[in-house]
Amino acid sequence: MPGNLFARSVHDLSAAAWFGGSLMGAVGLNGATAEAKDPAERTRLASLGWKKWTPVQTAACTAHLASLLPILWENKGRYATQDGVMRWTWIKFGVTVAGAGVTLYSGMLGKKVDELSHQGSEGATEPAPTASPELKQAQNQLRQLQWAIPVLAGTVVILGAKHGEMQRPKNVTQGLLKK
């Protein structure tokens, strides 16, 4: 494949999988499991679904980060010469690291919810009034993080588009003249 087509494709597809999977999980999986008749099944089923998704999401995050290396190498000259490229690269890197951290922490909370699933709940991220303080805290945090992850992953996708726009000949010329 010419240039960085493979690395850029992996980079974009892995970010899309991270975004789409996390959004589907929050809306589809967590929403559907809240409809289970047995309160103990709600968190158990959500946990099972997230466990099945975790290897795919881990692979997507890993592939996203790994594919960055050839992209950075191919564009190393632009960082020094084109105005804004280095700044936007650091912004995207920061958002990616924050998103990966939130995703990892969410997985740790999910494991805790899974361990306490026998207590039952109103939904995957909605504790029952009788839930232990530990389960309530984990579910309340997950309720926030289930939306933070697709926001951060979506921002990574948008920043990837920003980088793509910066490579248009007109924008490269303007960036070189500005610097």
UniProtKB/TrEMBL annotation:
Name the domain of life.
Bacteria
Residue ranges of the region described as Disordered: 117-137
According to UniProt, the name of this protein is Uncharacterized protein
